[in-house]
Specification:
The chain is mostly helical and about 200 residues long. The chain is built from eight helices and no strands. The mean pLDDT is about 85.
Length: about 200
């Protein structure tokens, strides 16, 4: 666990932390109500997951500095451990953003924090799986931004319960739980698929 943390806690983690600071400076928390807080979280803070989770697809290509197949533990276990560490950092970043906003006068309810966290997990995990399937990070980012822009323009007309921005519309509903389920499904498929693709390429 500690070794994986040292591998993952690199420049992208620092960049994500700096982005949280910049967002906190630009969002004007003293005038922020619940809907505004949800808007900033779902549309910007959740995107930080794209710096943290998709790079896990590059385990054998220098993405985090150490190959998956070199570990003695089950490859799936190592992958899930790294995903959980990255997800934990996303949770910290989300809590830092909203904690700082609350200290500077924002008025919102705590369910925003898990809601934004689940949104971020879904975005990052879908991008991760797409990157594995399409053979590169660019493919993962294209898939996720297509989903993101579709929801922004249609307000969930085409994605239903996988709508990303429900809290920005003033409601905390089961959409977020469906996003969490989607994230976990993508994690399971990615953990099963990536080691097998690596082995296939190796032989």
């Amino acid at each position: 666990m500690i070794w994986n943390l040292r591998l993952l806690a690199g420049p992208l983690w620092l960049l994500s932390f700096l982005i949280v600071i910049v967002l906190s400076l630009f969002c004007n928390p003293s005038l922020m109500g619940a809907v505004d807080a949800a808007y900033w979280g779902e549309r910007f803070v959740a995107l930080l997951s794209l710096l943290l989770l998709p790079p896990l697809a590059l385990l054998e290509a220098g993405g985090i500095g150490e190959g998956l197949l070199s570990k003695k533990q089950r490859h799936e276990t190592v992958f899930v451990c790294r995903w959980l560490i990255s997800a934990a950092w996303l949770a910290v970043l989300t809590a830092l953003f909203y904690g700082g906003a609350a200290l500077m006068g924002a008025d919102f309810e705590l369910p925003l924090i898990p809601g934004v966290f689940m949104t971020g997990l879904a975005l990052g995990s879908v991008a991760l799986l797409a990157a594995i399937l399409l053979g590169g990070l660019s493919g993962g980012y294209i898939v996720v931004f297509a989903w993101y822009l579709l929801d922004w323009m249609t307000k969930g007309k085409w994605t239903g319960q996988l709508y990303l921005f429900s809290m920005s519309d003033g409601t905390w509903n089961t959409d977020k739980l469906w996003l969490l389920v989607l994230a976990l499904l993508c994690l399971a498929v990615s953990a099963w698929l990536l080691p097998r693709l690596i082995k296939k390429r190796a032989f």
